[in-house]
Amino acid sequence: MAERKGHYTAPALDKAFLVIELLANNPQGLLASEMASALGRTLGELFRIVVVMEDAGYLQKSPATDRYTVTYKFLDVAYRATPARQLTSTAIPEMQALAGAIGQSCHLVVPKNAEGLVIAREENPGVRGFALRLGASIDLLRSCSGQVILAFSPAATVERILDRIATPPGAPIDRAGLGVRLAAVRGQGYDTRESPNTRGVTDVSYPVFGFGGELLAALTVPFLETIDGSQPVGFDTARTMLGDTTRRISQLLGG
How many Å apart are CA 161 and CA 165, to the nearest integer? Predict the structure, then answer.
């Protein structure tokens, strides 16, 4: 990872940010020596910063492996410093009711730079189900949640997001084709597609709006259809109930 470039520099703070981003990409945790090697630093140069971050509660060290991982304090600070706190406190009771009624899990995704971030989830109350973990990163181009976020965001915002998405050399984003797909999502008010990662799961997602019609999030149900048909409701009913839920959340948020 390279140093950040800017007019002002704060080397210690810059190293702390690099540590956070490195550990975010290595959720299994890393030794201090492994972090130093990955960042091209000496252990002595990095260790002091890691210890300070641990003392502040942002990193935790496994007593068994000595590996450092990021703590949930980051999420707590983010909730309190952004609209996410009001969004989740409003959405979670509705998500709980939805999951219980349809027998499926659901998760709430917000845009974060060039990807989506799961900031709340409610698991299927039954014995079988499929759910994403809290804090999971979502591919905006391939996921149902991502298509909804892009479809209902302002055009200028979408362009900024697309500019940040890294693509393989020689494989740029087909913006014209994407525009056609996003227009179709806007036209029907939601998106549905087979999960790009899990067989037997069909994702369906609706937008959540705030005051003034601002897109805040996408609420998604990864619908798992059981072989014996034991789920409480079918896909179409679950989709309708999901749409009703997102409209209630939006109304509560002033949308």
Answer: 7
Neighbouring-strand partners of residue 44: none
> Cβ–Cβ contacts within 10 Å for residue 4, how many?
11
- In one letter, which amino acid is 161? I
pTM metric for this prediction: 0.69
| pLDDT tens track for 56-83 | 999 999 999 999 999 888 777 766 665 6
**Of 3 and 67, the one with more pLDDT:** 67
Q: What is the mean pLDDT of residues 130-157?
A: 90
Q: How far is CA 154 from the centre of its chain?
A: 19
DSSP track, the chain = -PPPP-SS--HHHHHHHHHHHHHHT-TT-B-HHHHHHHHT--HHHHHHHHHHHHHTTSEEE-TTT--EEE-THHHHHHHHHSTHHHHHHHHHHHHHHHHHHHT--EEEEEEETTEEEEEEEE--SSS----PPTT-EE-TTTSHHHHHHHHTS-HHHHHHHHHH----TT----HHHHHHHHHHHHHHTSEEEE-SS-TTEEEEEEEEE-GGG-EEEEEEEEEE--TT--SSS-HHHHHHHHHHHHHHHHHHTT-
Cα-atom radius of gyration of the chain, to the nearest Å?
20
